[in-house]
Amino acid sequence: MLAAALCAAWTGQGRADDPALLGRPGMEQVYVWLNYESWSEGLALIRAGVHEADPQMVIRLLACIAKNGDHAVIVGRPSLAAKTILVIDGDQKGCRGFVTDEDLGM
Questions:
Q1: Contact 48/20 with Cβ under 8 angstroms?
Q2: Which pLDDT tens digit goes with each residue over 6-26?
Q3: Which of 47, 79, 84, 92 is the S-S candidate for 66 at Cβ 3.0 to 4.6 Å?
Q4: Contact of 96 with 63, CB cutoff 8 Å
Q5: Edge to edge, what strands does the sheet with 96-100 contain?
Q6: What is the mean pLDDT of each run of 10 residues along the chain (106 residues)?
């Protein structure tokens, strides 16, 4: 049984690192944050309305802004509800950062 599981993993069946689709229904962009701390700080700034008066304070916390429908590979799992990803296509190909699970599997 162990050999079958290893063989399936080796051939790519059911691998956790298969490309994931980025995006949320109704959204055009996916914000890829530098890390968990940047995401947390960015949300606090957005909730306080700072992004409206000074968007650069939030933008500096982003690794990139990908498009809905771009693909990414999950390269880490910093928490149960978030992933570290590497964008593998689109204009932001090569961007590495943090997204919540809501931003995966559109």
A1: no
A2: 344 444 444 555 899 999 988
A3: 92
A4: yes
A5: 20-21, 71-79, 82-87, 96-100, 29-33, 62-67
A6: 41 60 92 95 95 94 97 90 94 96 85
Task: Of 72, 71, 80, give the one whose Cα is nearest residue 101.
Answer: 80
| Length of the chain measured in residues | 106
Structure tokens at 4: 């079958």
* DSSP per position, 36-96: HHHHHHHHHHHHTTHHHH-THHHHTTEEEEEETT-EEEEEEEEETTEEEEEE-SSTTTT-E
The mean of the pLDDT values for the chain is 85
Q: Could you tell me which residues come within 8 angstroms of residue 49 by beta carbon, excluding any fewer than 6 positions away?
A: none
